[in-house]
Amino acid sequence: MVQNRLLEAGLKSCKARKKPFINEKQRRARLKFVKDHKDWTIEDWSKVIFSDECNIQLCPTPDHVKQGIKQIFLCEGHMNQATYKTVLEENLLPSALTMFPN
């Protein structure tokens, strides 16, 4: 059986994570954002800091590290509103001030 051979090879199956439904209000907001920023240059976007709340796996090689990342904060366990605010204040803000001193 194929599943047994995959397990013997150390490969496990997984289910795709369910994506949240995008309602009409969110769809309109995304479309407005795209239209408002469609003419931005690389220089415009270089002044933006993105906060990504996704789960990541650390890669052992530097080839997988994106250019321009100044600081990565790893949070173990669940994050609530208060913890997220603290993370932004103590990690994102100092990094932003380093990148954009003015």
Element layout with pairings:
Layout: H1 2-8, H2 24-37, H3 42-45, H4 81-99
Please tell me about this protein's structure:
This protein has one domain (20-99). It is built from 4 helices and no strands. The protein has helices spanning 2-8, 24-37, 42-45, 81-99. Residues 63-67 have low confidence and may be disordered.
Brief descriptors of the model:
4 helices; 102 residues
Number of strands: 0
Structural class: mainly alpha
The share of residues in helices is: 40-55%
Largest sheet, in brief, is: none
Number of helices: 4
Number of domains: 1
Provide the β-strand percentage band.
under 5%
Which geometry do the CA atoms define? Answer: extended
Query: H/E element string?
Result: HHHH
Protein name: Transposase Tc1-like domain-containing protein
InterPro entries: RNaseH_sf, Transposase_Tc1-like
GO molecular function: DNA binding
Organism: Electrophorus voltai
